[in-house]
Amino acid sequence: MRHIISILLENEPGALSRVVGLFSQRNFNIETLNVAPTEDPSLSRLTVTTVGDDRVIEQITKHLNKLIDVVKLVDLTEGNHIERELMLVKVKALGAARDEVKRTVDIFRAQIVDVTPSLYTVQITGDAAKLDAFLQAMAPVGLLEVARTGVSGIARGDKVLSL
Amino acid sequence: MELLSGADMIARFLQDEGVEYIYGYPGGAALHIYDALFRQDKVKHILVRHEQAATHAADGYARASGKPGVVLVTSGPGATNAVTGIATAYMDSIPMVVLCGQVMSHLIGEDAFQETDIVGVTRPIVKHSFSIRHPSEIPEVLKKAFYLASTGRPGPVVVDIPKDMTAPTERYEYVYPKKVKLRSYNPVTRGHTGQIKKAVELMLKAKRPVFYTGGGVVTGRASEGLTDLVKKLGFPITTTLMGIGAYPQSDQQSLGWLGMHGSYESNMAMHHADLIIAIGARFDDRVTNNTSKFCPTAKIIHVDVDPSSISKTVRADVPIVGPADSVISEMISLVQGQPITHPEALKEWWEKIDGWRAERHGKLYEPSKPGEALKSQEVVEALCRITRGEAYVTTDVGQHQMFAAQYYKFDKPNRLITSGGLGTMGFGFPAAMGIKQNFPDDDVVCVTGEGSFQMMMQELSTCKQYGVGVKILNLNNASLGMVRQWQDLNYKSRHAHSYMESLPDFHLLIEAYGFTAITVTTKEELEPALERAFADKHELVFLDVKVDPFEHVYPMQVPLGSMRDMLLSKTERT
């Protein structure tokens, strides 16, 4: 099963490599990885999506918790949560396809953020499945370049991941 | 307020931390630190002949003393030479602090002379690592390094120190930090009371219980408590290779050690048990054999200070995260005065176990007959007799390691000092050196083979320099015995590169360093040679014992089988 693990990490040199290294060293999967500083400059927030059965996910969270640079973590998929990813896509837009692309962009509530005579650059946010669906819809028209941020997430309700 | 240079801070900190020995080898990036060490005399520096030996010596010291071993190496090759020793300490959870010189900060990343990203290289084999970014951080970073290395589940910590951080011209305030806090690191100090209660209930109700304890009891200094608990319950106990001696092996309740080359009775007992009480052990593949066939009828209680060890390879029914000593003492207070529910079942269980014991008694190996080559097993048995089972025994890796563990009887923890996790050939001799310096009046013997010994034999020179009187028992079968055994069993005896042609004349080699060597080829020579070797505690003596090259280590678990699936000799199996 797919899990979204959010981690508060010491904002120290080398901290990220310890997290990433752990996954390769222990043969765990990383599907997406997203990392940026938080409002507290000493902390980064890192979100990783991974796939594994309960035993593997238990090991992943235990080993992450063991890393000295990991301050706190939560498996968002254990509760209700909001999942978002941002994607920028360059799509071929020539002739009749230009309107078709525009329509699909509207259907997905995406935005065209840059235009040339031959292509549109589209910005879209949503959960990973929505982004996948958009790519699938655009594939026949012609995908030229895809840049995804990887999943970021946060728990619904009053629950807060902080120190 | 005291102003010190980075290098002097390091020397001062080591003094204030109570470090007695530091093992190392100088080089460009570490020279300021070496100069600071030279100008003091509280911390003794031991100059090894290869950085790997520095880490193994510090490791041996740490295992025997319980204090973190300290290593100092220079950047680049100095640091990379230390890697095998760091990995060895990591796998066996040994507290160690490794100080590595590094090129000057402004050169980092430019492929400068003797530059290696040692923090990167060692990342998967350390508990944690630090890079010094300003000289003023040195005292706090070092305190954190020692604190991390020696608390919770211990392990090696690397501190990377660019040369400019130790420059003698720049001075900063030095205060010894008595305490440090890390917001993300709070090792557990006791187990969950409810879980411990649940475990004790299962223990009292068990019909076929077995204690299975590991290195965590030894490093956690919990053997006294363990012995008390096991005695109170009257249960059988088996230990891992790393846990040997945590419970006296000469006691009736001890089944010896378990796993791939463990005793017949311990593997049989584990397989048939209805309750396994694992403490400070990690269900390693050399213990469990095939996990899907592991102990089919047993419930499992698993106590470990490291939560990630629990349910890693085998699911625990009652997981308890906590240090062995405190969990054991809570268990003792709950067991106190409580009768076990099925004393008759336990009696039957013991009868069964004694039956297994009797089955293999006297059939473990065939002693040599007059005129035949000595058997390694009888050599180790003689060693145990001559040293009254009281020596510190270090080993390298291979058949001799298994024979040492099988035939030397250990009644105390920290007496068998062996690379159990990583299986590092070359570990034994430098480790023995580190122990002997800490316990000069005890017998310290390295049981080795001619393959392993040659990996670290340059340390004879270090022993000469510091007058280190270790004994070296070389079980010389002129081949890489364990490799050969596997080739016999799995490759129709095609001995690909497992023989040792062109061995040195060990006698001459040892004498070249000014030490005594004794060659033993017959049974009659064996005991007198051992007596002679151990006559003077402060003399290094090398025993080159020619042993049977065709001998195999048995029992041996059958790969992919259950715990009870064992080869018992070249012709028998369970």
Outline the structure in words.
Chain B: This is Acetolactate synthase 3 large subunit. Chain B: It comes from Vreelandella aquamarina. Chain A: It comes from Vreelandella aquamarina. Chain A: Its EC number is 2.2.1.6. Chain A: This is Acetolactate synthase small subunit. The complex is a heterodimer of chains A (163) and B (574). Chain A is of the alpha+beta class. Chain A has two domains: 2-79, 2-Layer Sandwich (Alpha-Beta Plaits), CATH 3.30.70; 82-152, ACT-like. Chain A, domain 2 (Alpha-Beta Plaits, 2-Layer Sandwich), CATH 3.30.70.1150. Chain A has four helices and nine strands, in the order βαββαββαββαββ. In chain A, the strands form two sheets. In chain A, strands 5, 6, 7, 8 and 9 form a five-stranded antiparallel sheet that branches. Chain A has a four-stranded antiparallel sheet with strand order 2-3-1-4, with helices on one face. Chain A is elongated and about 55 Å long. Chain B is an alpha/beta fold. Chain B has three domains: 3-173, Rossmann fold (3-Layer(aba) Sandwich), CATH 3.40.50.970; 193-360, 3-Layer(aba) Sandwich (Rossmann fold); 376-553, Thiamin diphosphate (ThDP)-binding fold, Pyr/PP domains (Rossmann fold, 3-Layer(aba) Sandwich), CATH 3.40.50. Chain B has 22 helices and 22 strands. In chain B, strands 3-2-4-5-7-6 form a six-stranded parallel sheet, with helices on both faces. In chain B, helix 8 packs across helix 13 (324-335) and helix 15 (376-386) crosses helix 16.
